[in-house]
Amino acid sequence: MSRRTIRVLLVDDHTVVREGYRTLLAKHEGLLVVGEASDAASAYQCYKETNPDVVIMDISMPGRGGIDAIEHIRRFDAHARILVFTMHGGAVYALQAFRAGARGYVTKSSPPNLLISAVRDIADGRMAICPEIGEVLALDRVHEDRTGLKDLSPREFEIFRMILNARSTDEIATALNISRKTVANYHYSIKSKLGVASDIEMLYFGLRQGLVGPVSPAANSGK
What we know:
Shape: globular
Number of helices: 10
Strand order of the largest sheet: 2-1-3-4-5-6
Number of domains: 2
Helix content: 40-55%
Largest sheet: 6 strands, parallel
């Protein structure tokens, strides 16, 4: 008996990466790519147009990131089934993704067959978490992270990441379609929840938590 067809939407800002996903999915019976998007805005529009069974969503994208995109789609369709497929293996990313409404989280270092099984699990209404993320979430629970990151809402976490990526207030406001004042209010709330007094302290906080990498000396050497 043949499987029912699972209609998939791919969301990743790299064309070559999406082509790889499409090729992988095409090798498996019952998986059909019905749309592709390179950013959060086009992902939302494509979701409304194609009504996929499963969305494979990256987190790091230009403009609105994947966490915000998940929340946006879920506000449109509370039953949307979204699988995060990303390079980020930290517990905080996974927790924020699930808080935003994701149904699964698989890292890009996972074997290809794990992505396929995760798509099928989510299409059937089950959660899907790769072993790597299951382990870091378990360890995080044991150590009871008290940094304040868990107190951030998905929107606050997305703005926090944009600030760490040196996005200006105007850039954040434009990307998220909110006012500069709203961005400033979020900025203040984020600093308060993290217990930092300035953007410099926020940057050091991000470095300590592994949310931003240190600048390579070669990047400023002019070579």
